[in-house]
Write a structure and sequence with these properties.
This protein is α+β, with helices and mostly antiparallel strands. It has two domains: 168 residues, Helix Hairpins; 68 residues, no CATH class. Helix content is 73%, strand content 6%. The chain is built from five helices and four strands. A four-stranded mixed β-sheet has the order 3-2-1-4. Strand 2 and strand 3 form a beta hairpin. Helix 1 runs antiparallel to helix 3 and helix 2 runs antiparallel to helix 3. It is elongated, with a radius of gyration of 38 Å. Bound molecules: zinc ion (ZN). Zinc ion (ZN) binds next to loops.
């Protein structure tokens, strides 16, 4: 009859496979990662230029709106010239006119500078978009390929999920509860290999837990190897398994 240790080992393998499938399904597959990173980076660059362009356009609109306000003001002042009653009022009005003309000039400089940025950004944007087209096309192809692969992976995950359920059903409730606790504590890895420790000369063979390096008693190794017993590491409490050349 199959030992609980064998079932636990199979369960851990199935869980690892399921996790890998789910990670792939939720994210980007390995074969697509590099293309995805390049695509995102270029897309971000293009978005940065586009927002520079927007900012310049907005600055230009603001400056032009201010010019129009100031020109309105200037017009009002110029109309008032015929209404002044004395030299002092005339002087004050001329002063206001000079001020507003100065403001118009500043705004025109701002609008011109913004226009230059706008034109330069637009050129860069056009050329970057042109260069991006090929990459974007390759990315779209990769995405459709990935979308076509997904259902296969999803059904594979479904099969493994059913296997996990079946294996869990085969384990005694107590063992399953323990396994689940260890799994939670050690980020989904409940098993650790008991490995032969390198020995110097004729020193007796010893073993250690590969996960935490703690010494494993020879008696435990015998229990695992000969009886398929579930034995825990004395230190990290993971379930110990043997690799092929450990006993
Ligand atoms: Zn350990």
């Amino acid at each position: 009859m199959e030992s609980p240790l064998e079932t636990v080992t199979e369960l851990q393998e199935a869980l690892n496979e399921l996790k890998s499938l789910e990670t792939q399904l939720e994210g980007i597959p390995d074969w697509m990662q590099e293309l995805h990173d390049e695509h995102s980076a270029r897309q971000e660059e293009i978005e940065a230029i586009a927002s520079q362009l927007d900012a310049a356009a907005a600055e230009r609109r603001t400056a032009e709106a201010e010019i129009s306000d100031h020109q309105q003001q200037l017009k009002t002042y110029q109309e008032q010239i015929s209404l002044v009653r004395n030299q002092r009022e005339y002087g004050a009005l001329l002063h206001e006119i000079d001020l507003v003309k100065g403001q118009i000039q500043l705004c025109e400089e701002r609008a011109l500078a913004a226009l230059e940025v706008q034109e330069e950004s637009q050129q860069r944007l056009d050329s970057e978009r042109e260069k991006f087209r090929d990459l974007d096309g390759r990315y779209a192809d990769a995405q459709s390929k990935w979308n076509a692969e997904k259902p296969g992976l999803a059904s594979q995950a479904e099969t493994v999920r059913a296997r996990v359920k079946e294996l869990k059903g085969r384990l005694p409730a107590g063992v399953l509860a323990l396994f689940s606790r260890i799994l939670d504590r050690h980020h989904g890895q409940a098993l650790a290999v008991a490995r032969k420790t390198e020995r110097a000369g004729k020193a007796p063979q010893t073993w250690h837990c590969e996960a935490c390096n703690y010494h494993v008693r020879p008696q435990s190794v015998v229990q695992i190897a000969d009886q398929g017993k579930i034995v825990f590491c004395d230190s990290c409490k993971r379930i110990l398994i043997l690799d092929r050349d450990s006993h």
